[in-house]
Amino acid sequence: MKKLPTWIDILLIPLINLAIALFLSALVVLYIGEDPMDALSIMIKGAIGSSYGWGYTLYYATNFIFTGLAVSVAFHAKMFNIGGEGQAALGGLGVALVCLMFPWPHWILALPVAIIGGAVFGAAWAAIPAYLQAKRGSHIVITTIMFNFMASALLVYLLVNVLKAPGSMAPETGRFIEGARLPTGHDMLGWFGIKFSKSPPVNISFLISLLFCFFIWFLIWRTKLGYEIRAFGHSESAAKYAGISPIKIIMVSMLISGALAGLMGINSVMGESERLVIDSVQGAGFIGIAVALMGRSHPFGVLLAAILFGILYQGGAELALWTNIPRELIVVIQALVILLTGALDNMIRMPIERLYFKMVRAGT
Amino acid sequence: MTLIKTIISASAALIASAAMVVADPALIYDLGGKFDKSFNEAAYEGAEKWKAETGGNYNEIELQNEAQREQALRRFAENGNNPIVMAGFSFASSLSEVAPDFPETKFVIIDMVVDAPNVRSTVFKEEEGSYLVGMMAAMSADKAIGFVGGMDIPLIRRFACGYVLGARSVNPNIEILQNYTGTTYHAWNDPIKGGELTKAQIAQGADVVYHAAGGTGIGVLQAAADAGKLGIGVDKNQNHLQSGSVLTSMIKRVDLAVYNAFTDGADLTTGFEVMGLSNDGVGYAMDSHNASLVSADMQAAVEAAKAKIIAGEIQIHDALTDNSCPAS
């Protein structure tokens, strides 16, 4: 079987998918009596038409990069970690504890410790399901999703009874001190004299997430451990025969996965809200699954998919602000894009493949 | 470099075009959603009433996640909306960050206090209204009454505490069953679970069940009516939802708070605004749907208690101040 040229594979097909998704969304918008072109331009302009829009898009993307990478690493070992939501919630707790516990003089000191805090807490939350899978054969899907609920209940307990700032009605901690707040896009570009909108929450965690994309790529494709993880994922029995310990691979891949999900906390807790709120994850744990699937579990694909989801989230927020489109329909529009670009990819791919090879034959 | 230049010029153009919009008020709903038949919907009705009376326009947004709180505040403020009203205590932290950046814009926050020169903080004395419906519940029940809260947070414990104190003031020995739907925001919108909790309480002998659970309460009232028992609504007048099976509703005039803010417009007075029994900010609902359920004696007793609360003769403990309740 011949292969499609790369430009068709990674550029044309996604673009056609996106166009169909936008067309279907336009029908939805038209149906509820709003102007589709208007809605589209608000969405696109709002997400990528200004430094403000980019600031929010990349903030969301940072969350999705971390959770997407988390799911990807587990995927390579054929582990379906759907506990990103809970692991990220615990990671946020770890980050918050680090930020609240010490009188940090400067963020440069606070950030590395917060990274460790988030990673350790996220990994610890993944460790129990991983152990149960490795030693007892309890299915990872069941245990991780149960741990999501336990994480949410644990956080509510801690925020309502232990960590709540005195006098506050909302179950959330007090604001972190100045020395535990990360520089935002506005601050960072300001160092180079470039103006960037002040309001969006994008912060230095975005650069850290890019670093982790590289680390994970290196880990999976350039190290012995990564090779073992991939070998185990492709065939457990072959991996065993080659002397790879399934227990070790399950534990290690899940710990890395949990740690990555937990790292989301430095973006959402330390970078954005600067305090621990009750739902710091905002569903990013589940979006991470879609991001990993769309990105085919490759860090670069995860990066691109995360940015697309960031655009959808931020564009959706702008739609909610300036039109009367109800938020449920905004979710429908987002879902259509995900469905077409992710799940129904083959629907477009096959006809185009046939068409292309027909044209090639006709040409020769 | 050129990309960044385009981005900057595009954002400048966006701000310029936004600045031309005149000062409409804006309303931000909390995560429960606009049509929750409760808190947010009351806010919506207040805004719609203002719109119908003045013919004015307002901007609104239903939030989808936490990160949008500060975003919506800033965007409306940059857009020139004034005043900006937000329905819910969860905005406190975001607002205290945003308010100083827009000294010319007036903000109104409901259910929470934010101390800034351009913020009006509207708070309700839910414990007063809950005390009255607690009395009515105890008078309508044999030996037990129930309470179904939404998310288990201090604010809802304030409802529960007022309800318990009111019921005990009528019948010190009455059994009071208390449950919360959950620990996440989903707890505001889970009528199935609300109904199950209500059935469980009725099975334990409860004759009247009061809910403070937003959209979840629909299930509470339904389950109580199905079992031939009574429910008590909250926030809005919910007597009509199960006509004849809703004893009363603890009304919290969120609509009034929004309406007042919109009417006052950009010159609204800032500071602390308390809405209690004395200024009809909270109360209990009487209409044709529950007239047969509330006897004259009952109403007289409740009115007497109301007068005493307004006069300060009855002091009701506010569970928020110390996170505990003297009775349970």
Order of helices and strands of chain A: HHHHHHHHHHHHHHH
Number of DSSP E strands of chain B: 12
| Estimated helix fraction of chain B | 40-55%
What can be said about the biggest beta sheet of chain A?
none
Low-confidence stretches of chain A: none
Spatial strand sequence of the major β-sheet of chain B: 2-1-3-4-5-11
Number of domains of chain B: 2
Beta-strand residue percentage of chain A: under 5%
**Structural class of the secondary structure composition of chain B?**
alpha/beta
The count of helical stretches of chain B stands at: 11
**Overall average pLDDT of chain B:** 89
How many H/I helical runs of chain A? 15
Distance between the termini of chain B: 65 Å
Quaternary state, please?
heterodimer
Radius of gyration of chain A: 22 Å
Mean of residue pLDDT of chain A?
91
Q: Give the termini separation of chain A.
A: 17 Å
CATH superfamily of the largest domain in chain B: Response regulator
Main CATH class of the largest domain in chain B: Alpha Beta
